[in-house]
Design goal:
CATH superfamily: Class I glutamine amidotransferase (GATase) domain
Structural class: alpha/beta
Number of domains: 1
CATH class: Alpha Beta
CATH topology: Rossmann fold
Shape: globular
Distance between the termini: 24 Å
Length: about 250
């Protein structure tokens, strides 16, 4: 009997939630799983974001790549040397412990990861950078938060341009110097971490696209949400397609 070729596995770093006001669950948005399965061509596997449940080496050995998703909780400011304030919002320290460790390990090994929204912030913090607690409070910045009302289509609508560095990684991948994106975040990169290259910015200068300089693997991360409509949006298809290629390369050795 001929052996079946397995699709590579992408661990989706999710979030903890309370449902029905009593049950704690680990989960991730359905659009994340759909993008990994339909566009990246990989098997989506939701990772319970709790370091008490597994070791980081075991997790790395179980997956071929990682998707660092968005989420309402923010990276705790102690992770970048600042004190907690009400402006920093809510936190998930267990996810911090998993995601930051995964990023650092993957940067060194070359195992691919793709960061989205909170994910780009985790990558920056993992590399020693810091975050602004509220972008819209900074002089000259726009409000990057999601609209308070509306359908999902309205919430995830394209709202601003992202301009890439000429001849940079993202410009080459997109085949264009600029793209339109959605925007659903309150925090953002303040001080870039070591080796963090800001390769795309919003019109107000907010970092929107980064990668890690001289990393041996795929390290692209974005501040917007490309998982929305990923199979039809050309920007999303380029990102998730390239990530899937990188994951297959890793799985193939």
């Amino acid at each position: 009997m001929r052996a079946r070729t397995r699709r590579p596995v992408v661990g989706i770093i999710g979030n903890s939630h309370l449902i029905n006001d009593r049950y704690m669950v680990h989960g991730a948005g359905q659009t994340n799983s759909q993008a990994i399965a339909e566009v990246s061509g990989c098997v989506p596997l939701i990772v319970p974001s709790d370091p008490a449940l597994f070791s980081i080496p075991d997790l790395l050995a179980s997956c071929d790549g990682f998707l660092l998703t968005g989420g309402r909780p923010n990276v705790h400011p102690e992770e970048y040397g600042e004190a907690e304030t009400p402006a920093h919002g809510s936190f998930d320290r267990a996810r911090d412990a998993v995601a930051l460790a995964v990023v650092r390990a993957c940067v060194e090994s070359g195992q691919p990861f793709f960061g989205i929204c909170r994910g780009i912030q985790e990558v920056n913090v993992a590399m020693g950078g810091s975050l602004h607690p509220e972008i819209r409070d900074l002089p000259g910045r726009m409000n990057h938060r999601m609209p308070p009302d509306g359908t999902a289509e309205e919430v995830f609508a394209l709202r601003h341009m992202v301009t890439f560095s000429p001849d940079g990684v993202f410009a080459r991948l997109m085949g264009a110097p600029q793209v339109m994106t959605n925007t659903l975040h309150g925090q953002g990169i303040d001080r870039p971490g070591a080796r963090v290259v800001i390769d795309g910015v919003a019109p107000d200068g907010t970092p929107e696209a980064i990668y890690i300089k001289d990393a041996p693997g795929f390290t692209l991360s974005v501040q917007w949400h490309p998982e929305w409509n990923a199979a039809k949006d050309p920007v999303s298809k380029a990102l998730f397609g390239a990530f899937g290629d990188a994951v297959r390369d890793w799985a193939a050795g």
